[in-house]
Every structure is written in structure tokens, then in C-alpha cells.
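Propose amino acids for all 394 sites.
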């Protein structure tokens, strides 16, 4: 059995980088930008008023001063002339600041009578003028790789970048295997259960910015699995669920090898998720997940998501970890790294009592995995431990 880190290294070596494509801004949310974007203009492109008021020459002692209002500057409509001593322009937020103006006095600090304005308040020291290029200048870069946030998209738009170079979404084919499985909504026979893993993994994959393709459930026989693998053609990643262990009906590894899968590893020193396998199948990465529902989802977080991130051009690395304070005593760990379903709240992590890898109700309550290293001794409440967050604390 290899370690989680060794398995990840194998997976990163198997995973191809996705080719680049250009998408318009409205399609770019959550996509991974893989080349720097370069500002095509400065922002603001001109010195701009930050307030509604009157633009006058800079100077101390504005209080009580009077000015002739000689024109108006509004956002989108500048004032072409020059403002001299004793003169002012009516100016609005976002307007280009005319030549000669060094200070915008808030209209709340002014009294206007006809074409005359007098500063009746006490203007602050700030000029209320945003300098040209104060946000960014032409040629500035938004660096890649990065997963584009709403704020990034606003910045790109302001840079006058209309299309973004992103990694193509990896297509991930999902194959559930097992005679016992039926789809949600069907009427299961007496010995059957509902295929659930594929739905959890589908969501995980889509959330990661990849494109999940749910294939029909394959029965526990080679012909059915062959058909399913055939339907997965063209996918960048093929994920099988179940049939990975040592039982007579666990045929995924054998069938995959029959059709040419070059195996990179099988079995990991971790709990849950021991019978994980991976290899290369033609142009795709094949990942064989264990069938136990929690095992499949935990492997999704620990292996599939990092692989997808790397394929999208983000740095190759394990699922991010935090440190937390242990909220309850835990027994010594055995020879497999244990990822215990846990609740993280206010920096304290408390594992659930029941850790069976079939318990989806517990996984749904969990928002973190408490990581127990191989051979770790018993730990007491209050000690510092590592966790893999699964979702935000709630
Ligand atoms: N003698 C041994 N038995 C087992 C070992 C072992 O080392 N020696 N390992 C155990 C571990 S750990 C795991 S994990 C499981 C993994 O088994 P498989 O990957 O072969 O999975 P299946 O047998 O097909 O299914 C296990 C379990 O999960 C249910 N399942 C499968 N697919 C789905 C799905 N898409 N949605 C919902 N539930 C699913 C299936 O019905 C079984 O109950 O092996 C242990 N055994
Ligand atoms: O690895 Mo199994 O995933 O322990 O249940």
C-alpha cells in the first residue's frame, strides 16, 4: 500500500493539462484563467471627481471663498476649458477633472446663487480627486493561474478585457458499478439500493469547475463494464465507483486492464478509501473509487479535486489543511491514515462517534475531516490537530 501523498504524485503525473480556450466574461465565472490578463487602459483613465460639488483651484483657506461657476463636468461629459483663479465648475462624481481644478468642494459645503458659489462649510483636506491610473495602469497584469471570482471579472471588464484565456473544462465520466444499484426515483428490488455516490461526485466535480458526465450504471459483469467504458470515450477522466475491492464481483480493475488501462497504483494506506486504484486508459486518467459511499466521497475530496485543479492549471497540491483544536479525546490510530468525519466550529474539531464508511447521514453533517496520521498515538481534547475542511463552517 502506498501513502496518500505518493498516490497524489502518481495522479498528478497521469493528469494532462487542459488545452486553452477563450471565453467571454459572462462565461468566465469560476473558470481558471491560465494566462495573465493585461490591462488595455488605465483606470481611471483621467483624474476623476470622487464627489458631487464644485471644482476649484487647489489651495488652503477655501472656507468663505466665492467663485464664478463657468461650466459643468459630468460623468461621460467633461468640461473642455481651463478653470482659473476665482472660477469653479459644477462637477459630478466620475467626471473628468478639468484643467486647473485641484480640489472638489462637496456641494454640502457650498451655497449657490445663480452663477456664484460660496464655500460656506469647512472643506476637508482631501482633494476629492481620484488620480489617473490610481486603480491600475495600462499594461498592469492580473496574474494567472487563478480561479476567477466575481471581483476578478469586474476588474477584467474595467481593464477592457472582453475574453479570458481559460483551461478547457475537463470532462469527467462517472460510472457506477453494481447489480444492486438503481437510479433515484426508480423502484428498487428487495436486494437493491439507490446509486448515491454518483450524485455526490457529480456535484463535487461540477463545483470544481469540471464537466461531469453521468453514465448508465454498469452491472457486475465484464460485458456491461465494457459498454460503460466505451460510453466514456472522449472523457479526460474516467471515474468508476465500486467493484474495486477483492470480492468475486469486484471486477473493475481486471476489466479496465483488459481494455488497456496501465495501472499506476492500487490500494492506499488510508481510511476510508483503501481500495483506490488509478492508471492511464488511452488519453484519459482512470480513477477507480471504492464503492462505500463515504469512501467514494472522501476520495473525491482528497484525490479527484486536486487532480482536477492541476488539470485546470492550478498548482498541484493536496487538499488544503487547517490546524484546529481537538474537541474530544481520540484513540491511537492504526497503520492507515484516518480521515475522520468531523464537525469544525470556532476552530475546534470534534469527530463523530460513528465512522463507518457507509454513513452518508454523518458525512452530510460533517464539515471537515480530522486527519489522523499513520501510527499516531492517542490524542486528548485540547491538542492541535490537522483537518481538511469540506465546506465552510456553518
Ligand atoms: N475482504 C475484504 N473486503 C473488503 C475490503 C478488504 O480489504 N478486504 N475492503 C473494504 C473496503 S475498505 C471498502 S471501501 C470496500 C470497497 O469495495 P468496492 O469498491 O468493491 O465496492 P462495492 O463492493 O462495489 O461496494 C461497497 C458498498 O458500497 C455500495 N455502493 C457501491 N457503489 C455505490 C453507489 N454508486 N452508490 C451507493 N452505494 C454504492 C455497495 O452497495 C456496497 O454496499 O470493500 C470492503 N471490503
Ligand atoms: O476504505 Mo474503505 O473505504 O475503509 O471503507
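Proposal:
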Amino acid at each position: 500500500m502506498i501513502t496518500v501523498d505518493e498516490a497524489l504524485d502518481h495522479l498528478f503525473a497521469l493528469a494532462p493539462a487542459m488545452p486553452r480556450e477563450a471565453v467571454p466574461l459572462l462565461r468566465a465565472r469560476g473558470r481558471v484563467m491560465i494566462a495573465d490578463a493585461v490591462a488595455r487602459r488605465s483606470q481611471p483613465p483621467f483624474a476623476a471627481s470622487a464627489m458631487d460639488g464644485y471644482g476649484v483651484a487647489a489651495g488652503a483657506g477655501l472656507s468663505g471663498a466665492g467663485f464664478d461657476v463657468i461650466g459643468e463636468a459630468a460623468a461621460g461629459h467633461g468640461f473642455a476649458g481651463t478653470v482659473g483663479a476665482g472660477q469653479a465648475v459644477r462637477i459630478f462624481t466620475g467626471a473628468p477633472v478639468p484643467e486647473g481644478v485641484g480640489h472638489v468642494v462637496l456641494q454640502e459645503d457650498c451655497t449657490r446663487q445663480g452663477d456664484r458659489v460660496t464655500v460656506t462649510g469647512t472643506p476637508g483636506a482631501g482633494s476629492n480627486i481620484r488620480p489617473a491610473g490610481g486603480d491600475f495602469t495600462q499594461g498592469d497584469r492580473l496574474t494567472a493561474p487563478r480561479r476567477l471570482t466575481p471581483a476578478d471579472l469586474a476588474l477584467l471588464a474595467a481593464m477592457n478585457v472582453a475574453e479570458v484565456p481559460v483551461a478547457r473544462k475537463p470532462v469527467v465520466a462517472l460510472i457506477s458499478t453494481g447489480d444492486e444499484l438503481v437510479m433515484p426515483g426508480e423502484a428498487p428490488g428487495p436486494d437493491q439500493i439507490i446509486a448515491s455516490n454518483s450524485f455526490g461526485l457529480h456535484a463535487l466535480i461540477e463545483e470544481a469547475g469540471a464537466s461531469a458526465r453521468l453514465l448508465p450504471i454498469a452491472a457486475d459483469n465484464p460485458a456491461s463494464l465494457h459498454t460503460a467504458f466505451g460510453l466514456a470515450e472522449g472523457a479526460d477522466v474516467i471515474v468508476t465507483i465500486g467493484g474495486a475491492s477483492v470480492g468475486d464481483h469486484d471486477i473493475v480493475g481486471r476489466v479496465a486492464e483488459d481494455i488497456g488501462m496501465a495501472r499506476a497504483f492500487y490500494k492506499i494506506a488510508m481510511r476510508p478509501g483503501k481500495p483506490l486504484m488509478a492508471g492511464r486508459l488511452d488519453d484519459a486518467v482512470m480513477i477507480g473509487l471504492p464503492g462505500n459511499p463515504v469512501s467514494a466521497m472522501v476520495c473525491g475530496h482528497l484525490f479527484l479535486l486536486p487532480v482536477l485543479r492541476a488539470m485546470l492549471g492550478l498548482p498541484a497540491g493536496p487538499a488544503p489543511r487547517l490546524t484546529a483544536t481537538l474537541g474530544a479525546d481520540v484513540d491511537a490510530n492504526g497503520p492507515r491514515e484516518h480521515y475522520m468525519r468531523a464537525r469544525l466550529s470556532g476552530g475546534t474539531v470534534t469527530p463523530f462517534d460513528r465512522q463507518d464508511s457507509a454513513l452518508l447521514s454523518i458525512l452530510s453533517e460533517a464539515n471537515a475531516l480530522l486527519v489522523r496520521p499513520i501510527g499516531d498515538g492517542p490524542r486528548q481534547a485540547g491538542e492541535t490537530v490537522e483537518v481538511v475542511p469540506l465546506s465552510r463552517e456553518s
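The longest strand covers residues 337-345. The chain is about 20% helix and 30% strand.
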